[in-house]
Amino acid sequence: MALPRLVPRSTVEAASTTALRHEVRAFLAEQIAAGAFTPAVDAWLTGWDEDFTAALAARGWLGMTVPFEYGGHGRSFLERFAVTEELLAAGAPVAAHWIADRQIVPSLLKYGTEAQKTHFLPRIVRGECFFAIGMSEPDSGSDLASVRTRAERVDGGWTLTGTKVWTSGAHLAHAFIALVRTAPVDPAHRHAGLSQFIVDLRGPGVDIRPIVSMNGAHHFNEVILDGAFVPDEMVFGEIGEGWRQVTSELSFERSGPERFLSTFVLLAACAEPTAPPAVSRSAELGRLVARVAGLHQMSSAVAGALERGEPADVPAAVVKVLGTTTEGDVAEFAHLAGDDVAPQAFRETSGAAMDQRPGFTLRGGTNEVLRGVIARGLGIR
Ligand SMILES: Cc1cc2nc3c(=O)[nH]c(=O)nc-3n(C[C@H](O)[C@H](O)[C@H](O)COP(=O)(O)OP(=O)(O)OC[C@H]3O[C@@H](n4cnc5c(N)ncnc54)[C@H](O)[C@@H]3O)c2cc1C
């Protein structure tokens, strides 16, 4: 029996897309020179900068794949891929719009009502509407079918009650899409009875409490929904179809360049001619560069598959397992390479990368769970 492909057929970048890359690079160099941002690790999760987001929107680099009729730019996934890859490689602060641009756009286009598309998409494109992800709960992470937040039918809508946790950016975002129970668990069909709702994070019945990380940073939150009212117009997709909707969009969440470029600024710094020879000529550095180059090919191949409308959940899981392991290894390599004489900025950045590293292989699905997805895709589980 032939094994299924773990990487979709590769995509050759069009000359126009390469030109776009150079445009983004020039913009980023200008922004760094002007002091608009300092390149940072994991800036797609922690670098919330609404001015920078506005600058990207002004150049047409947000909501690139949104069709013209919703205020978007009608560009391809591959063009979006090139732009996001450049932003990530530069360590640019893209967290404010990241979730909306990465997964809310494709989800809205697939499952949103006309009114939801008309309301949210133009605002996302303009960099004026930010989203968070409302999936995890205190006792429910990998096994999302066990979520206990429930929605009850009331006049004109639903009331949501329960607690979401690890909600990145909820204290700054406008809304999240919450996965909740709309029917009791049926042990024979645990994935049934789940639904999604677009929740206004600034509305009544929503209490957002910070979870401060060990290094003092605040990007996580606990979001307590205490009878939060969601009107019928903000039901997302079909009631009872939440599981299918969530899982069908996972490829967008797992396969992108943010799964291997979170620490790229450190890799680049180690490869600089100005880095100590013991670092810049290390065989381990060469291996890390080769791994990132391979991941670029794999991740762009998945972007090509998504563009063609092909299912890509297994290849996306492969990118995520290999990519998040690699970006963590880059953090460790740079941390060990940065001795006492390394510049202060380098040591601070590699320290920040080590702080963030445990999350790389957890967020968006843990490596253990994803290996299970890959094994199932290969028919060996
Ligand atoms: C930086 C970061 C940002 C995040 N942002 C968000 C966010 O914005 N919104 C949101 O909803 N969530 C967010 N999360 C939560 C994240 O999605 C969960 O941490 C993740 O899904 C794992 O769930 P858990 O932490 O409950 O661990 P658990 O599911 O309890 O897993 C614990 C351990 O058991 C292992 N395990 C579990 N099930 C299996 C299995 N079937 N086979 C083998 N091993 C298994 C896991 O691999 C893990 O090692 C974020 C997490 C991090 C680290």
From TrEMBL:
InterPro entries: Acyl-CoA_DH_CS, Acyl-CoA_Oxase/DH_mid-dom, Acyl-CoA_Oxase/DH_mid-dom_sf, AcylCo_DH/oxidase_C, AcylCoA_DH/ox_N, AcylCoA_DH/ox_N_sf, AcylCoA_DH/oxidase_NM_dom_sf, Mycobact_Acyl-CoA_DH. Residues 18-128 form the Acyl-CoA dehydrogenase/oxidase N-terminal domain. Keywords: FAD, Flavoprotein, Oxidoreductase. Residues 284-378 form the Acyl-CoA dehydrogenase/oxidase C-terminal domain. GO terms for cellular component: plasma membrane. Residues 132-223 form the Acyl-CoA oxidase/dehydrogenase middle domain. PROSITE patterns: ACYL_COA_DH_1. Its cofactor is FAD. One of its GO terms (molecular function) is flavin adenine dinucleotide binding. It holds the Pfam family Acyl-CoA_dh_N. Belongs to the acyl-CoA dehydrogenase family. This is Acyl-CoA dehydrogenase.
